[in-house]
Amino acid sequence: MPILNRANEMHDEIVGWRRHIHQHPEIGFEVHRTAEFVARKLEEFGVNEIHRGFGESGVVGVIRGRLGDGPVIALRADMDALPIVEATSQPHASTVPGAMHACGHDGHTAMLLGAAKYLAETRNFKGSVVLVFQPAEEIGGGALAMIEDGLFDRFGIGHVYGMHNMPGIPTGHIALRPGSIMAASAKFKIRVTGRGGHAARPHTTIDPIVTGAQIVTALQTIVSRNTDPVTAAVVTVTKFDAGTAYNIIPEVIELWGSVRALSMEVAKATEDRIVHIATRIGEAAGASVEVDYNQTISVTHNDPDEAAFSAQIAREIVGEAQVDADAAPVMAGEDFSRMLERRPGTLVFLGNGGSANLHHPEYDFDDEAIPAGVSYWVRLVERKLAA
Questions:
Q1: What is the largest CA-CA distance in the chain?
Q2: Helix (H) or strand (E) holding 6
Q3: Both ends of the chain: CA-CA distance in Å?
Q4: Is the pLDDT of residue 254 over 60?
Q5: Are 97 and 196 contained in the same domain?
Q6: Rounded CA gap, 102 and 365, in Å?
């Protein structure tokens, strides 16, 4: 089964939905306008159940197949945007100052709506499909909020599937891999408290800037000297907040940073080293050091059997040559990982061609990828829930 004729027929309509969502981006859990747009479309399609306000502001729809009772699977799309000023100059550019869909969640939402419309028309499957429209992926809280609201247990979901567009992969191609496909992501804040004073009398102070600089340099050894070279980890200090004047040694500084790893063991070991290095350097300098470490996202792990299944679905839709079933993992994080921790399934990458990178002000979702994305969702449901 190649690209669905119906997906091609609906293309302009789905593009319209996508561009409407793009023009009205919302951030975090504050996706109320987008969620209502989604819920009303699901009502138009005749979806059996629609649940608003799920996980604070998410939407869940349930479509029951016409071939009788059976398993329940879930398809997930994220709805939230980013706090970025758009620089595309597209006619459908963001109308909200300081916010834009720079990660393609508008495309994810529109494609799942397209699949919902088709599946509600045909219902050519046994059991039920749960459509999960999630808020707050970018801040790493939306998936967990929906889970804690009873997503899996309330609807009896046995498997869960996700899709994310990926610039650099040809438009409409599909890539995935078994095992770790996206990294665990953590953020940290290190607060160094010394003793401030006059820049001309540093010997009377405990200089937190010098201490902080030593911490930044030492943190670079975690990947180069404490992490197995055949594993993957990233430690990046992204903010050094210090000082108020050229002639004052400050009392307090703060360092912010990010950690990525492709295994939770490496992630935990990295956390331990950051805490140890920062506190011991502080002790040596006579400064007080506090480390606030937050493991926001776990490793996104594709079940091997489900990865093989998803790869076969992809081949049926776009052809063998357009599927990479052993793609390189990505060090970015994805809170869909929280769902895959609880149920087997897969995350696949849908090619977005030569667009600007994700989280870039010139990024835009490639609408030509929509038929492949919709067809993949439909075929997955009909195969997984075959009579």
A1: 82
A2: helix 5-9
A3: 18
A4: yes
A5: no
A6: 8
DSSP codes of every residue in 107-142:
HHHHHHHHHHHHHHHH--SSSEEEEEEES-TTTT-H
The average confidence (pLDDT) of the chain is: 98
Q: Tell me, what's the pLDDT at 387?
A: 82
Residues 45 and 155 in one domain: yes
For CA atoms 45, 378, 13, 106, the dihedral sign is positive
Q: State the CATH number of the domain containing residue 237.
A: 3.30.70.360
Banded model confidence at residue 237, pLDDT cuts 50, 70, 90? very high
Same domain, yes or no: 196 and 306: no
CA distance 126 to 106: 29
pLDDT tens-digit readout, 152-195: 999 999 999 999 999 999 999 999 999 999 999 999 999 999 99
Whole-model pTM over 0.90: yes
- Based on the fold, state whether residues 262 and 154 are members of the same structural domain: no
Q: 74-98 burial by CB neighbour count: b if 16+ within 10 A, else e?
A: bbbbbbbbbebebebeeebebeeee
Same domain (yes/no): 75, 163 = yes
**Domain boundary pick from 297, 324, 340:** 297
Q: pLDDT by residue (tens digit) across 118-165?
A: 999 999 999 999 999 999 999 999 999 999 999 999 999 999 999 999
User: Any bridge partners for residue 191, and if so which?
Assistant: 254, 290
pLDDT of residue 272: 98
The label of the residue with tokens 């890539």 reads: 175
Supply the pLDDT for residue 283.
98
DSSP characters for 252-309?
EEEEEEEEEESSHHHHHHHHHHHHHHHHHHHHHHT-EEEEEEEEEE--EEE-HHHHHH
